[in-house]
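The instructor's notes for this session suggest beginning with a concrete chain rather than abstract definitions. Hand out the sequence below and ask the class to guess, before any prediction is shown, which regions might be ordered.
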Amino acid sequence: MRYLLLGGIVSIIWAKLVPAPLFTDPHPMQRIGWCETMEHLGINLFAQSNGISFVKLRDGFPETWLGVVADQTWDRLIYILGVDSLSIRYARFFKAFGYWAPPSYFRSPRGLACDSTVFNNNSNNYFVYTADYYNNRIVRAYYNTADKEIHFYDNIFEGTLLNPEDVACVLNPSGGSYMIVADTKHHRILLIQIAVNLSYSILMTYGSEGSGVGQFRNPTSVAVVPCRDSIGYYRIYVVDRDNFRIVSLLYVSASNSITWEREFKDNALQAGFQSATSNPYYCVYVTDLDREKIWVFTPGLTELLYT
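After discussion, reveal the predicted structure:
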């Protein structure tokens, strides 16, 4: 009787440890990826993904985060509620956002940015800005921690942008945040201030078509980070695709001015620079699509460390 009881307990524990498989035919599967979705569902979870952003969620489990991916081919966002627990990263769910009707539909969403700023004293919302390429606008949506859904908020800069490819944001210590937009076909970037009540204004535009200082040819990506050694100073990195270079700009909030700091150019004119990212404490990472590698620089592009 003791052995039967022990066997029953072990069976119950094992059943609780091992979740029910997603598929049992032709064989049990606990996890599903690209090959499985193509085989069993006939679709990809993602198609062409041009943008991704993560933000750590506040006032919750300390290792909970939100990840958002722009699915350019299917004109939608895929968002993931993830958890890092005991050195294991897993997703609580995958969901999609995007509708085939105005006003919240996309036409080739490209770069995006998650903003952790608290707007309108609502700490449940995290805003997500997406460069809506063919609609020539930035879509503002927000993730709500109460219902765990992304909701449409509004469209901004319609009639101002021409094929924007990327957007970035950073906290403004005085309240609200700064947003940078790569206005690709106008060969410039926009610097925007977003107030705590979600109103916004363009602080300045920077750039024109060309290959000299203060000029771009089809900028595809932007990143913005505060300078850790100077309050009110920010570095803005721009991928200047058709000039085969990456540019570091310095923004001073007190004077509302942008200066050209330095550039790194591939003189062989072979690099397919596409996107850049950074933070105040680490390096600048730039993707090279044509040569399938990543270029790594020190802050401010002062030194190329490795590829």
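Then share the key points. The helical segments are 2-17, 34-40. The radius of gyration is 22 Å.
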